[in-house]
């Protein structure tokens, strides 16, 4: 995707590039799009994301309301897609003890619009990568499609570009100067750190999976 020079987008992308690359190499994500990736690792990724997105989306929505941001996150909620993948396709209840996080979610501070932009950048940007992952998963032999276990990665589907552009317009308006961009980058990096910690938590239990309910 093209970025405008000197845009908030270009700034955030550059500042988080190393964190993104490090996540792509995480043990639980590496190989996700390759044939032979185990379905049980996929269940762990979805469960980790489900609990993370529940917490993160609650934070985004309350901050957005408090700050009167004008950015309507509610139609963008993704934890319902993750729940649908887990419960409907794999008969996994993410509230069962095994699938729950073993660590406390560390709330990310969102005290102004710039910090909201930083958090949203990671959550909304991940849907761009999600679409690439969605296409590759369907081509691999995992047996996942948009309707079966892959709703989350399918994301906004054909609306992806328009949703992303709406977010970028909001980001530009909300971060007009260097200090605000810096704050946004700081918040974005805190989200990447939290995603990595959530994946660490779940990869530690990869060897001891219960049978999903049938
Ligand atoms: C298997 C793991 C992952 C892969 C293979 C991957 C791949 C990608 C790809 C290919 C893009 C570019 C899409 C495009 O420009 O159309 C992208 C963008 C992005 N991804 Fe990921 N991703 C992964 C995991 C994650 C995770 C876990 C997060 C954070 C929750 C994340 C956050 C982002 C962000 C913020 C962008 C937007 C970058 C930009 O500013 O253009 N990604 N990803």
Defining traits:
214 residues; mainly alpha; Heme Oxygenase, Chain A; binds protoporphyrin IX containing FE
Order of helices and strands: HHHHHHH
| CATH 4th-level superfamily | Heme oxygenase-like
Query: What's the CATH class, please?
Result: Mainly Alpha
Contiguous uncertain segments of 5+ residues: none
The tally of structural domains comes to: 1
| Cα-based radius of gyration, to the nearest Å | 17 Å
Level of helix content? 55-70%
Q: How would you describe the shape? A: globular
Please, what is the average pLDDT? 94
| Proportion of residues in β-strands | under 5%
Short description:
By secondary structure, the chain is an all-alpha fold. The protein has helices at 8-24, 39-66, 79-90, 113-139, 151-154, 160-174, 178-203.
How would you characterize the overall build of this protein?
The protein has 214 residues and is an all-alpha fold. It has a single domain (8-203), classed as Heme Oxygenase, Chain A (Up-down Bundle). The protein is built from seven helices and no strands. Helix 4 (113-139) packs across helix 7. The radius of gyration is 17 Å and the shape is globular. The model has no long low-confidence stretch (mean pLDDT 94). The chain binds protoporphyrin IX containing FE. Protoporphyrin IX containing FE is lined by residues 1, 9, 13, 20, 23-24, 29, 32, 121-122, 125-126, 128-129, 132-133, 195.
